[in-house]
C-alpha cells in the first residue's frame, strides 16, 4: 500500500479527480496526453500514467473570471469545466462493428450514434449552455459540411449532427452524438462549446474516425444482406483468381484491413491524392460520396501520377523491387509505402493493385470484392475491337497498341449512383491497374456493372474501356513482312470476357458472375447490346484497321480446322507435351503447311522469348483428323520462364490458295505444391507451431529459396525464412510459430 503522511490540497484534488474517472472503464487519450500536477512524486506519477482516465490539463481548462473562497461557493459560482472524458471505446466499437480494428482508437460509422461520458467540475444547471463542434480536414467549414456546430439537447434530432443528453447524474453527463448518414468520412475532432458565468469558450475533447456504414439504410453504401456484408466488409482474407480460361487457378490474399496501423495508412492515402493537394477543402468535403472516394483510390493505389502506393511492372524483370508474384497480401505493401516516406512500392501487377484497393475499400466500410475477367481486352482506341497480329511463320507480333490479357483483375464496390439514377446502383467497377488515362490520370471507374450489361457506354465513368474489356471483338491479322502489309484473318466475337469470377460468399469456391456483365454469348441480346454500344461511340471512332470489322473476311471459309491439346503433365521442370490436332473438313485431300512457335509470356500478353519452333507439311485424307506431337523440353524454356509460368504456342496452318488458320493456346505450368501442417491445437493468444513441406521437383539443386508467410490475426507483420539449398528431388521441412489473436476459421 502506498501511503503519504502529508497531502497538499492540489494532490487531494488530483486523487479525487483520478478516482472519480476510473470507474468508467476504457478512455481515449486526448492528443496532448494526460497532464499531471507538477508536484507529484514518481510513484504517484506512475500510478497516474497507468490509470485509464483522461485528464484535461490545467492549460486546457478555462479559468473563471472571478475568484472564490470556499468549496461550497466554488460549486455555486465557478464556471463549468470538463474534467475528463470516457469515450466508452469498447461498447462504441462493438455497436459500430469496428471492434476488429487493432488498437483503442474510437472508430465509428456515420448515421449511427455513439456515446461518451464527461465529468464536470460541478453539476450542470440551467444557467449553463453546452454545445459541440465536429470538424474534419485542414479547413473545416459549415458551408462545406466539414464542420458542424450543434447544441446539447434532450431529444433526438434527425438528419444532421446532434448531441442528446442521455443522463445527468451529479457531475457526470452521458451524451450521445449522432452523425448524418452522408457525412464526409475520415478523422474528426470533437470540441465542446461552453457558455457559463459569462464565459464563452471552446475546448477540444479528442479525435475519432468516422467511416461509411453499410448497416444503415440511409447510407449510400447500405447492403441489406447480412452474409454479404460479412464477406464484403468484415472478411480480412480472400482468394484472387488467376491463370487462363483453360486453367483457372487461385492465389490467397491477406487483405488485413484490421491490422495495426492499416486504417491510418488507408486514410493517409486520401491526404496524398492529387485532388487533396490541389484543393484540400473541396476534396475533404467530397469524401461523403463513395463514388468520389472510390475514383480517388483507383488513382492512388497505383503510383503513376501521384506517388501512389504501388509501381506497376510487366517487363518480366523486377530488379530493384519484388516480383509481384511474391506478395501475399496488402499489409506489407501499405506499411512499406508509409515506411518509405510514401514512395511507390515496387512492384505490382493487376491482382496486387486489386488486392490492395480491396483492403482500403473494406477498411473505409465500402463493401467490395475482387473480380477476375479471363481473356480481358485492352482496347486503346475505343472501337470495341482488339487487333492481334502474327507473321506468316506463326510468330506473334508486338504490333499495335491493343492487347488481350490472359486474365485481368479489378474491384467492385457497392454503392448508389445518385448521378445516374437508382437502376445503376449496386456493384461498380473500380480498377487501380494503370492502363489508360482518364481525365488525365491513370484511374478507372466507378463504372456501373448494370450499365456495362446494357451497353450504356455514354455514362460515367470510363464505360467504353470497361465494356470493351468484357465484350470486344478479337480481330486476327496476318502480317506480310515482304511488302509490310497485313490482311484480316478472322473475327472472334465470343472469346473476350470469359469466366468472370469472384470468391463466393462464405466459402472458398469460385462464383461465376459473367451474366452480371453481359448477356449470353451468341444471343441476340448480346449482339444488340454490342451494336448499341458501338453506335454510341461511333461519332468518336477513328478510322483504323479494326474499323473494317463488318467486312467479310477475304476468301472462302477454310477447309481445315485446328486446335492444341495438352497430352502430358504441366509442371515446372518437366517436358511440355502437346498435340496439334488438324482435321480436314472436306471430301478432298488437303496438304497443309504448318509453322509453329512457342514463346514464354507475361500474363498480359507481353512476349518474353521464343523457346521453340517447328515447320511441317501434313497431308490429310478426306475428313481425316491427325495429331501432330509438340514437345518443349525444360532446357528450352527454363531460362526464359517468368513467374507467371506461361507459354504461348501458335500454329499458322495454310492450304494453298486458302486463308490461313491460326491456332493458339496458352499453357500454365504448375509450381510444386506447398503443404502446411498445424502441429498443435490452435488457441487464441497461444503460440502454435506450423510446418511447411516442400519438395524440389528438379533434377538440379535449388538455391536461394525464401519462404514468406503472412496471415491476418495469425502473425504480427510477416515472416521471411531463408530455406537451405535443396538437392535434386529433396524434401524440405520448415517450422515456424504463429500466434492467433482472433477466433474463427483461417
From TrEMBL:
Signal peptide: none annotated. PANTHER family: PROTEIN-GLUTAMINE GAMMA-GLUTAMYLTRANSFERASE, PROTEIN-GLUTAMINE GAMMA-GLUTAMYLTRANSFERASE E. This is Transglutaminase-like domain-containing protein. SUPFAM superfamilies: Cysteine proteinases (SSF54001), E set domains (SSF81296), Transglutaminase, two C-terminal domains (SSF49309). SMART domains: TGc (SM00460). Residues 342-434 form the Transglutaminase-like domain. Belongs to the transglutaminase superfamily. Transglutaminase family. It comes from Felis catus.
Amino acid at each position: 500500500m502506498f501511503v503519504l503522511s502529508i497531502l497538499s490540497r492540489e494532490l487531494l484534488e488530483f486523487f479525487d479527480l483520478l478516482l472519480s474517472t476510473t470507474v468508467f472503464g476504457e478512455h481515449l487519450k486526448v492528443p496532448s496526453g494526460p497532464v499531471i500536477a507538477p508536484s507529484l512524486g514518481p510513484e504517484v506519477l506512475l500510478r497516474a500514467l497507468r490509470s485509464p482516465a483522461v485528464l484535461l490539463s490545467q492549460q486546457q481548462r478555462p479559468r473563471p473570471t472571478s475568484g472564490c473562497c470556499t468549496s461550497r461557493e466554488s460549486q455555486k459560482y465557478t464556471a463549468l469545466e470538463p474534467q475528463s472524458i470516457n469515450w466508452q471505446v469498447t461498447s462504441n466499437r462493438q455497436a459500430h462493428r469496428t471492434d476488429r480494428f487493432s488498437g483503442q482508437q474510437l472508430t465509428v460509422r456515420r448515421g449511427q450514434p455513439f456515446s461518451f461520458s464527461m465529468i464536470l467540475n460541478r453539476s450542470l444547471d440551467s444557467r449553463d449552455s453546452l454545445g459541440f463542434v465536429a470538424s474534419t480536414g485542414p479547413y473545416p467549414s459549415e458551408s462545406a459540411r466539414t464542420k458542424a456546430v450543434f447544441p446539447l439537447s434532450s431529444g433526438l434530432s434527425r438528419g444532421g449532427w446532434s448531441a442528446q443528453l442521455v443522463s445527468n447524474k451529479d457531475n457526470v453527463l452521458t451524451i450521445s452524438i449522432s452523425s448524418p448518414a452522408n457525412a464526409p468520412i475520415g478523422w474528426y475532432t470533437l470540441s465542446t462549446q461552453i457558455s457559463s458565468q459569462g464565459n464563452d469558450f471552446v475546448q477540444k475533447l479528442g479525435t475519432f474516425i468516422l467511416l461509411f456504414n453499410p448497416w444503415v439504410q440511409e447510407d449510400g453504401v447500405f447492403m441489406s444482406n447480412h452474409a454479404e456484408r460479412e464477406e464484403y466488409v468484415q472478411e480480412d482474407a480472400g482468394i484472387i483468381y488467376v491463370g487462363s480460361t483453360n486453367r483457372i487457378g487461385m492465389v490467397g490474399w491477406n487483405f488485413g484491413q484490421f491490422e495495426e496501423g492499416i486504417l491510418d495508412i488507408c486514410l493517409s492515402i486520401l491526404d496524398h491524392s492529387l485532388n487533396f493537394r490541389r484543393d484540400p477543402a473541396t476534396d475533404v468535403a467530397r469524401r461523403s460520396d463513395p463514388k468520389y472516394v472510390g475514383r480517388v483510390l483507383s488513382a492512388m493505389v497505383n503510383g503513376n501520377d501521384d506517388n501512389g502506393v504501388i509501381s506497376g511492372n510487366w517487363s518480366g524483370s523486377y530488379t530493384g523491387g519484388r516480383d509481384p508474384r511474391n506478395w501475399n497480401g496488402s499489409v506489407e505493401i501499405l506499411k512499406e509505402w508509409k515506411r518509405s516516406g510514401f514512395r511507390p512500392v515496387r512492384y505490382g501487377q493487376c491482382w496486387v493493385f486489386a488486392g490492395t484497393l480491396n483492403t482500403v475499400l473494406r477498411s473505409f466500410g465500402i463493401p467490395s470484392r475482387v473480380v477476375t475477367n479471363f481473356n480481358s481486352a485492352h482496347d486503346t482506341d475505343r472501337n470495341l475491337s482488339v487487333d492481334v497480329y502474327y507473321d506468316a511463320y506463326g510468330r506473334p507480333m508486338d504490333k499495335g497498341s491493343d492487347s488481350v490479357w490472359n486474365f485481368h483483375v479489378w474491384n467492385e464496390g457497392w454503392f448508389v449512383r445518385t448521378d445516374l439514377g437508382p437502376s445503376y446502383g449496386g456493384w461498380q467497377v473500380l480498377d487501380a491497374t494503370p492502363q489508360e488515362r482518364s481525365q488525365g490520370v491513370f484511374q478507372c471507374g466507378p463504372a456501373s456493372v448494370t450499365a456495362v450489361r446494357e451497353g450504356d457506354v455514354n455514362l460515367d465513368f470510363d464505360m467504353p474501356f470497361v465494356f470493351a474489356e468484357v465484350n470486344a471483338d478479337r480481330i486476327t491479322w496476318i502480317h506480310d513482312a515482304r511488302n509490310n502489309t497485313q490482311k484480316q484473318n478472322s473475327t472472334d466475337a465470343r472469346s473476350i470476357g470469359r469466366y468472370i469470377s469472384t470468391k463466393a460468399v462464405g466459402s472458398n469456391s469460385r462464383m461465376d458472375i459473367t451474366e452480371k456483365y453481359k448477356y449470353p454469348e451468341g444471343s441476340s441480346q448480346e449482339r444488340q447490346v454490342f451494336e448499341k454500344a458501338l453506335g454510341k461511340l461511333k461519332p468518336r471512332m477513328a478510322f483504323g484497321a479494326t474499323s473494317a470489322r463488318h467486312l467479310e473476311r477475304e476468301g472462302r471459309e477454310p477447309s481445315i480446322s485446328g486446335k492444341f491439346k495438352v497430352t502430358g503433365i504441366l509442371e515446372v521442370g518437366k517436358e511440355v507435351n502437346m498435340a496439334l490436332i488438324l482435321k480436314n473438313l472436306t471430301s478432298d485431300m488437303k496438304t497443309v503447311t504448318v509453322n509453329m512457335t512457342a514463346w514464354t509470356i507475361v500474363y498480359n500478353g507481353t512476349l518474353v522469348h521464343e523457346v521453340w519452333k517447328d515447320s511441317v507439311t501434313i497431308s490429310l485424307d478426306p475428313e481425316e483428323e491427325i495429331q501432330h506431337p509438340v514437345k518443349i523440353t525444360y532446357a528450352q524454356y527454363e531460362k526464359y520462364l517468368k513467374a507467371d509460368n506461361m507459354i504461348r504456342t501458335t500454329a499458322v496452318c495454310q492450304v494453298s490458295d486458302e486463308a490461313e488458320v491460326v491456332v493458339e493456346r496458352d499453357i500454365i505450368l504448375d509450381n510444386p505444391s506447398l503443404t502446411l501442417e498445424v502441429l498443435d491445437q490452435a488457441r487464441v493468444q497461444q503460440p502454435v507451431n506450423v510446418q511447411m513441406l516442400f519438395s524440389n521437383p528438379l533434377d538440379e539443386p535449388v538455391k536461394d529459396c525464401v519462404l514468406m508467410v503472412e496471415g491476418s490475426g495469425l502473425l504480427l507483420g510477416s515472416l521471411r525464412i531463408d530455406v537451405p539449398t535443396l538437392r535434386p528431388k529433396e524434401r524440405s521441412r520448415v517450422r515456424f510459430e504463429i500466434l492467433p489473436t482472433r477466433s474463427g476459421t483461417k
